[in-house]
Amino acid sequence: MKAAILHKSGSTPKYGDIDLLFDLKENQQLLNVKAAAVKNLDKARVSGKHYASYREFPTVVGTDGVGELADGTRVYGFGITGMLAERAIIGDNYTPIPHTLDYVTAAALPNAVLGSAMPLLIRAKLVAGQTVLFNGATGVTGHVAVQIAKHYGAKNIIVTGRNERLLEELRSYGATHLINLKDTDESIKERLAVIHRETPIDIVIDYLWGKPISLIMEILKGDSITHISHTTKIVTAGDMAGKEISLSSSILRTSAIEILGSGFGSLSPEELIVFNKVILPEMFLLASNNKLHIQTEAHSLENIEEAWNKQLASGTRLVITI
Description:
Blueprint: E1 2-6, E2 14-17, E3 28-38, H1 40-47, E4 59-60, E5 64-68, E6 74-78, E7 87-91, E8 95-96, H2 103-114, H3 117-123, E9 131-135, H4 140-151, E10 156-161, H5 164-173, E11 177-180, H6 185-198, E12 203-206, H7 210-220, E13 232-236, H8 249-253, E14 257-261, H9 269-288, E15 295-300, H10 304-308, E16 316-321
Parallel strand pairs: 9-10, 9-12, 10-11, 12-13, 13-14, 15-16
Antiparallel strand pairs: 1-2, 1-4, 3-5, 3-7, 3-16, 5-6, 6-8
């Protein structure tokens, strides 16, 4: 079987042949893989620096993907075996893919939807008409998040980032306020303060943590004299700007900030079923109707070494086709 094979932790997966015995157990399916996205998680596991890094070699890499079951049903699923291969085993919690949606888009969407819809809908519980701030929105997940927020009725959508071109692109997806994190701290806080006074921020979905979220918290804290504070849910879904912050007790005592996290550890098995059976199918339908967009760059499995190390344009997801 042709696959992307990792021979040593920290090396680049190589294209080659590997013999695997697919011993299907109850509630498992054999998938003829058509495409799989390469995400930060995949690269972290290959690097050997992730808690779920590969320990046995040689091994097939890839965590999730799309393809066809034995009866021809098109599905997305998580791999019990590596997904960057001609065949892989998946569990029974898979998601059907519309026939009108191409495999490359179907492979690219799930991780971005998981990182955007789950913090927005499940953790923060977005209600139509609310104001949402996406902190660090110029990546793949941020682009999808803005579109999902608009789809579910967010009235105002604030986005922050350092790439001016991608910030402007987010406006076309529904963003109403753009804040460039290259500006001075005071300028950023002044802009946020004006927005927060005019349309109080209900939800912050944060992909950065570090200094940017600290600046945002300073704006969200209440007036210690009048005790006026607007309830804001902050959901952390990433830490690209730093894994730790210094959080003063006074910020929490003078505010109605609620701090939550969103990731596999914070989501219940039931919520993950909702993701696969309710949320993701709706996103697939939106994409098939050209109402949800994601930037991709596709390469064939044979070119996995070159594609794995290629520097992609910001906001673009790498997808390997099989």
